Amino acid sequence: MRKTSSLRVLTKKSFVCYLAVLLLFWNEMLYPFIHSSLWDTLTEDDGLQAARILIVADPQLIGYQNELPFVGPIARLDSDRYLSLGFFYALRHGRPDLIIFLGDLFDEGVEGSDEEFEWTLERFDKIFASYKSVQKVYVAGDNDIGGEGERVIGWRKDRFARRFPNILSMKDLGLRGVAMDEMNIFNGELRNITVPSGEDKLSIMLSHAPIIRNFGMGARHAADRHSDLILTAHDHTAWSYTRQRSGGSSFERVPIERGTVVEQTIGREQPVLELQSPTCSYRMGVPDMGYGLLTLRRIDDEADGTKLQVQARYTVLWLPGRYPQMCSYLVLVVWLMILAAHRVLYAGLRSIVLTRNKNVKQNIV
């Protein structure tokens, strides 16, 4: 009797509708909120103010050429919403003074047309909308201007630089004396993001692809510039690399996992630190996605400020997995299909039985 009652409850339309609404509310609203509330805040123990930097790596907005015509609009809509929701919570939690986009902003930045580029740019601006007071820096990746499998073309670089201008004041971040540069290891190009100054004593290098582990791929230029902190992406996973300045090309590589906080003092007499941020898109084929959160606090070891160091703390704001959520929707759809098939089959059998009973009665009469 209990089994029959349970089966009736599971096949009721109202129960299935309630379950669908509850699952949708949990996946799309409640779980992301709860998940984000467990992120590390990277609060400074001594109460001193630090510059907060949010790192967005490899969003790779889906384009218009590599998706099936009937799948593309749905894929773009779902991926864009995932990126937008994750960025919203990361922005609210991280309260950044600076947002760094570490390349591969578009998936089809190389093969897409100018019109498709503008369409994707419009979506990008909506997804990653932030406060006007937050400074932004954009680094081009190989999917944006070429470099991996194809050469970097000048007009693509110009288009990217025109659409994503960089205007940065380290002084406003409380990091006077720290310079920021960008390097493309695919063509060896090196450029200044901040205006060079005689006061610069430390250097932060931005690169889409890793530098320390690719020491022989033109990345020696970065080492020659005495880079002290390097921020990279490209592989869709999170790692920290440490290289002793006198150690040549040897380095130490450690994965950055959930709950990990990387802390290190940055200075000319300290080891070079490279932080590689994971992708923030679930479409990159990796199980873990997230946004990097970095705090930098200036330290003057000497009274005259001649010896500058920066205290760096880094963690990843890991995002909920999207494919498990999709699997839950798929299970629900299959369940609904089974229930629908059951009802149709039951109605058909019932009709046959009623027809037979009617014929039997007529024959008896």
TrEMBL record:
Which Pfam families does the annotation name?
Metallophos
Named from the GO MF annotations, one term is: hydrolase activity
Q: Which domain of life is it from?
A: Eukaryota
Q: Which UniProt keywords apply?
A: Membrane, Transmembrane, Transmembrane helix
Transmembrane portions of the chain: 329-349
Domain Calcineurin-like phosphoesterase span(s) in chain numbering:
52-237
Cite a single GO BP annotation.
GPI anchor biosynthetic process
Q: Where in the cell is it found?
A: Membrane
**Signal peptide (from-to):** none
Membrane topology is: Multi-pass membrane protein
InterPro entries reported for this sequence: Calcineurin-like_PHP, Metallo-depent_PP-like, PGAP5/Cdc1/Ted1
Task: Name one cellular component (GO) term.
Answer: membrane
Protein name per Swiss-Prot or TrEMBL = Calcineurin-like phosphoesterase domain-containing protein
Give the taxonomic lineage as stored in the record: Eukaryota, Metazoa, Ecdysozoa, Nematoda, Chromadorea
